[in-house]
Amino acid sequence: MFSKLVVALALASFSLAYGVTSPGESQNWTTVGPQSATWKRESTDPKTFAAFLTNEDRKALPQNNQLLAGSVDGTTGRVQFEPPQGGWPEGNGFRVNFCRDADSPEAILAQSNDFTISPSGVGSGGVGPLEGAPQAQDLDVHATEKSNGAMARGAFEAAKDGLMGLMGFLALMAV
User: Fold this and answer.
1) What confidence tens digit (pLDDT) does each residue in 90-104 have?
2) CATH assignment of 18-147?
């Protein structure tokens, strides 16, 4: 019975995490200028995160996990990313990953839905820049090629961290 309670509570804790609200299926980006991301945050989420642009298609994004910002203030709920060196790539199937830090693209806290990056003027339904949104700084612009298992490792790490936190909480409650 206790193991069922632990599993239920662990699963419930995963629903309390960053939720990327844009970009997404109907809110795409263009290849021109800064591009925006928005999210919802729970009080238990880390206050900062790193943001990476990803795409499984190596023709669209030759090196996966392109760092967009090394440290984003998660309490603001929105940010504008400056174009990476060489400009925004073009294509379908992009996602923005919110990760623990700039050195851990596999430690995914949240992930956007798939979106398209298209040339300006093409009916993209783009999000575009948000007025007043903080500007992300490319402090450490480097792309890191990760294996296909990076996503699974990130999910495992998040699950492990959530379970460890839950077990600590339950241990305190038992005292």
Assistant:
1) 999 999 999 999 999
2) 2.60.40
